[in-house]
Design a protein that fits this description.
By secondary structure, the chain is mostly helical. It has one helix and no strands.
Length: 68
Amino acid sequence: MENTSNDEEIRRMLAEAEERGYNRGINEQLEKQMHTPGVWESTLPNATDNPAAPGFEILANVRRSIWD
């Protein structure tokens, strides 16, 4: 009788540990995805980050397009 209750306790503890590990893996994967750029987010620097050289006014305010 004692072995049966010990076996059940071990199975329950093992199931809880497996569930915690599974949830931890999911949370780590979600955290990685949160730090990656989205589908429509650009990883290119903005035009204001690299101002054009003086004398090139046409390039001073480059608009970002959907292709950037």
